[in-house]
């Protein structure tokens, strides 16, 4: 397993090319699995389920067709993107379980800062409750999304991955309907009042990875 942390802002097309080559090498048995931590300049990506109406401001930032699962997502400075290039074939060939494991990994990392993350049926990603905000119309607690997840598989090797909001400009999410969900907002670690740096989050992700993936994936099925 190789961990790569790239400073600065990595152009999106450059990242895609690197991922494509690495995934091909993993599938061929000539390259190690890899977790690549980086930041992008401001941009929007459209997943395979993206709806045209959810791109509210098409001229605000460059828009890329990502060919991953999911809908529209924002990437930009202050957001930790983790490209996850792992052999899912060697981990049981269970895509749903793999996505859940990614969510639990994010939750474990957030817990190191005292943040309780949640998995919600029908809403991929990681959510945090916001007691200070008004309840939803259905009476449920107000919740904001702190991490988005979208993957693609090729020959049972994953790529793309997850994005965790550390300190991005949250107004940049206004140009899309993030992940197609209108009734919830978006937050970040700093927005929650936590002075967490990118390096702090990276260390937490590295500490908690083996607890989720080290002994094989174990999943509690969602309803």
Description:
- The protein has 223 residues and is an alpha/beta fold.
- The protein has 3 helices and 11 strands.
- It has helices spanning 12-28, 95-111, 198-213, and strands at 2-9, 34-39, 43-46, 63-65, 72-75, 79-85, 118-120, 123-129, 143-154, 157-165, 185-186.
- Strands 1, 2, 6, 7, 8, 9, 10 and 11 form an 8-stranded mixed beta sheet that branches. The chain has a 3-stranded mixed beta sheet with strand order 4-3-5, with no helix packed on it.
- The model has no long low-confidence stretch (mean pLDDT 92).
What's this, in brief?
The protein is of the alpha/beta class and 223 residues long.
Provide mean pLDDT, rounded.
92
Strand content: 25-35%
- Gyration radius (Cα, Å) is 17 Å
Approximate helicity band: 10-25%
The total count of strands amounts to: 11
Derived structural class = alpha/beta
Task: Give the CA-based shape.
Answer: globular
- Biggest β-sheet, characterized? 8 strands, mixed
How far the N terminus sits from the C terminus, by CA atoms, comes to 32 Å
- Which residues sit in consecutive blocks of at least 5 with pLDDT less than 50? none
What count of helical segments does DSSP give?
A: 3
Oligomer: single chain
> Can you write the helix and strand succession as a string?
EHEEEEEHEEEEEH
Topology (elements, then pairings):
Blueprint: E1 2-9, H1 12-28, E2 34-39, E3 43-46, E4 63-65, E5 72-75, E6 79-85, H2 95-111, E7 118-120, E8 123-129, E9 143-154, E10 157-165, E11 185-186, H3 198-213
Parallel strand pairs: 1-2, 3-4, 9-11
Antiparallel strand pairs: 2-6, 3-5, 6-10, 7-8, 8-9, 9-10
Helix pairs in contact: 2-3
